Amino acid sequence: MESAHRRRGAQGSIETPESEQEALKQRVEQLEGENTLLKERIKHLESQLGIDQLTGTSNRGVFENELERSLKIIRGETEEHRSTAEHHKEISLIFVDLDHFKQINDTYGHPAGDEVLRKVSALLMDSVRETDIVARVGGEEFVVLMRGADESVAARDAEDFRMKISQMEFENYPDLQVTASFGVSSSESSQLAKDLYEKADKALYEAKRSGRNRVIVAGKI
After folding, report:
1. Of the residues 90, 115, 140, 151, which is catalytic?
2. How far apart are CA 143 and CA 93, in angstroms?
3. 151 carries an active-site annotation
4. For the chain, how many structural domains are there in total?
5. Which end of the chain has a smaller Cβ tally under 10 Å, C or N?
6. pTM (2 decimals)?
């Protein structure tokens, strides 16, 4: 006689009645829905806090706000942190763009690309000073805002970043080699956010055009 709850198959295995299977399926779907909702809430919260979800760096909005705020301090247009203005007389930008990133995704898959982004961002955040900001501003593009650093200091640090990235190893992808190109600009040449951005971007383009895996300083082109 079959049990009211479960019955045994020909090999003695326990078979789940269709009603229980349906209930299980509904519960799984409910949990998946709750998980999706939780992820969306986390993503929204991170966006409000100015955090890039994948890498944990600041996002473009935070970078743009902090750049303009720092330049206002330099120009003497705000009382905010006036006591520290002497230490922030100059700021520099380092643009970072990973070389051949699409090829990494195409060859090794998007999980590998995500791992590269996370590892590079962690390296940058671990390497900068407390007063600096690292932000992800594009798919494989980062920017480092360096307060109180002139062009030569930023160029030196960019070269350090370049070397460290080129020496990275990936346990799950032992054949994967990553390089990056860098563009550097400084408020020595302009105290306008648009100018600084364009100069760093132009220097980065020159680094890409001239062979990648190198640092180009805007004041030297």
Report:
1. 140
2. 7
3. no
4. 2
5. N
6. 0.77
Side-chain half-sphere exposure of 93, counting CA atoms within 13 A: 34
Number of residues that this document lists for the chain: 221
- Domain with 24, as residue range(s), is 14-49
Residue type, 56: G
Residue 1 lies in a domain: no
Residues 35 and 133 in one domain: no
